[in-house]
Task: structure prediction
Amino acid sequence: MNTRSAPDSLRRRPRAATAPVALRAALVGCALLAGALANIGAAAAEIKLLPPEEAFRYAARAVDARTLEARFTIADGYYLYRDKLRFGVEPAAVTAAAPALPPGKLKDDEFFGRVETYREQVVVRIPVENAAPGQTVTLRADSQGCADAGVCYPPMSQRIELVVPAAGSAAGPLIEAVPAKKRWFR
Result:
């Protein structure tokens, strides 16, 4: 019989009971992280942003040979920046003067500081020169807006072709840049 014992360096030492505790802590941490990610995902899924053409619906009409009218219908929960509105006309022979923009509401914006914004609707009259009755002109509107959810859209440019009405006749029809989609189911 061998009475000799193994040297201390070769003896197995009993494992401490820390492995099950560490495993439990790791599992609890993973469960908490998964729950937090699920909450973030649910919150992000609740925010459904509209495409910019729906959030900021642009329409225009030719009032007469000297006036074009631009209109933005702004969805609830969205706003347009007043200082980001710009208008231009084509062909080059037709010129547009700077429009008198209506005053907006002051807002302390996280992206641009203290600015004027529009909500719901804004109508702008653009004076033009050298437009002839019956002529087709293109009114370009450059704009930028944001959602109250904290998301800003990049600047966008939209165009609408308008026919200048004959002298003494009624204003032309309001034409939408992107016609409203029919929604069969909501």
Remarks:
- DSSP finds two helices and 13 strands in the chain.
- Residues 21-44 have pLDDT under 50 and may be disordered.
- The first helix runs from residue 18 to 46.
